[in-house]
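Q: My hope is that you can spare some time for a protein that puzzles me. Underneath my words sits a plain record pairing an amino acid chain with its backbone structure tokens. Those tokens are not coordinates but codes from a learned vocabulary of shapes. Thank you; the sequence and its tokens follow:
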Amino acid sequence: MSQVERLNIWANTQRLWPLLLIIGLYIFLGGLYMWAMPPFEGPDEPQHMAYIEWLAKGKGFPPQGDAAWETPIRQEAGQSPLYYLLASLPARLVDLTSPRAEFRSNPYAFSGVGPQHLADNNNRAIHYPGEVSRLAGGWLALYSSRAISLSFGILLLVSTYGLARQLAPDDPRVAIAAALLLSVTPQVIFISSVASNDIPAASLSALMLWLLARTVRLGLSAGRALGVGIAFGLAILTKSSAAALGPAIAVALVWFWLSRHNTLSQTFRAGLFLALGTFLASGWWLIRSWVLYRSPLGLSTHDQTPWAIGDSEALVRFSMRWLDVFRSYWIALGWGTIRPKGEWVYFILLALAILALCGLTISLVSAKERLGVRPAVKPIGIVILLLATIGVAISLEIWMHRVIAPYGRLMFPALAAITVLLIIGWYTLDKRLPFIISAAVLTLALLSPFLLIRPAHALPKKLTDQAIEQLSSRLDLRFGLSPEEPVAILLSAEAQAHSMPAEQFLPVELCWQPVSQTEQPYVILMHIIGPDNSLVAGRRTYPGLGHFPTNIWEPEHPFCDLVHVFIWEDLPKTLVYQVELAMLDPETGKRLPVFGPDDVPMRGMFVDRVRLESIVEPESLVDSEKDNDLQVQLLEFDVASTWSRGELSSLALEWVTYVPLARDYQVFVHLRDPVSGEVVAQADGPPLDGWYPTSFWPPSQVIEDERTFPVPADLQIGSYDLFVGLYDLESFEQISEANYLGSIEIEP
């Protein structure tokens, strides 16, 4: 080897060492996320693994369409097979049943659609302690599938680096910045660390864009066109959504012809080679899917999903769905529910994206060679990347009209294009800006496993003896078939809000003392009950925010749990509602018996009460300023002047309190003799039949109390005075003067 060759190798090594360091950083972060994220907690990971196991067991390709839903692969059976074929190779070398990687579904998991800020049922799977104590059998197949996804990420980084080098050949900092940003984007790292075909599809799409940009820069030839076509076909063979990059390729071919670098026949010949490469890589699969299922891209399989959109009314507003696509492009971990607690993170990312768009616009219209790119190449290169991004976005918009799918990872076929465009935009404004932003994104990526992922899947903390002694509202209710052998003791239950508007989540804290494990996981049932046993909200969940079912409870592990109950929007009236709690057998649906401290069975167990505000009929407000010393005042009343003996008479009262009332007072309604003042009949009771105790009355709000008065059948005919007021049931002390409502004429 000559001295010149050694110098060239040394120079190339010196140029590539930043990329090698970036790849090392990416592998480290990917391994960190793989450790933090429990099995089957990647998007559709159970179905991806079912596809891999199906191939590993030699069953051939899974059926598509309706038949796919008779297999554990479900909607993923329509996916292109390349990733699954590769992941099935190591799976074929192990005994998948020793041990089996069992997916135990959490039926109460929250949906990944829309922002989710509650740390509640983020797990799609139920995880048993120590289930992955050793990597063998099915667990080894799962983690090897994750490793293959991570390995494709290396190709993604290299291809993105190469793509940026083609657009800015004289300034390697652009390529380094693009690879760095990609390697630290939390969603990219997360999707790379789970079993999924998203990163393989993104990497092969990036490879195609790299080869296409290289062809644009160096010139059109049959060999280069064939390479672009093969890469494009492999991307489609990995995920059919990569076909949305086709328009960008077509525009590049038109540019070759119109730029007069090539004749029409040369361009047509190159197009044929490109099509040939695409067909050789993916044509067989597309033809097979068309012949067998009349769906070359496998889309029809998704039409049977529960999240398929049947009509336009089910479609989320355009701005909302694309805002969620943006959020989940950057960071929406797990099944999309594990997100930063504050929206400010997304606001900053959105501002940075807008900043990049401004810089990109400047780079397109500026005549200066700010990136050191030859003018003939630079505009078309950026245009191709923009078309690639727009093509995938249009494809996703069409897809979101078919199924509910506002997921940023579905933009990943354009991941390399988006990343390079962001870097060019920031770099145009300031050469340091891409590296500063990447450092900030790296900080988010490093913190997420410890501040978001692990806490979202943590078991509840064990209560200390001191904490148990300090619990308020002790109940000590035993759940079980008998009081002698309970499953658990409910130490306390308390709503975490005194008042709550409709369309909000009401958190209720339950503190448990497990006594024994159960064969099946019992379900926590919580109902919010109103008058006439009406149901205004309900929730079912496994304990421990979905992570701690009773069949893995430990008797020495007392804990407190939160159950979030969503108050339905059609709450009919602002009242104080009862919180009902039960424990259900999931197989029979029967409630587990509950015994009080005296071993007496309990029926209809209400553990707390809470004021819920209706948005259907909001309460009226009055001026809080007053010229008297009254705590509570009767504002208005409506009562008939004539009553009949032996019948129920109605009266409507409107109260207002000027200060919070500490006690629950009774309403008295008295008929008095106008001469002696003696009470001849009365109808006392709590306001609104007990559904709105005075301790829950907020100051300045009008409380409407519809009441009935049973007129005694033996009451003498004549005129009587009607008085109402409030009093303390324990001391019988009135809290204000009796209010005179007028004279009532009693008729036969």
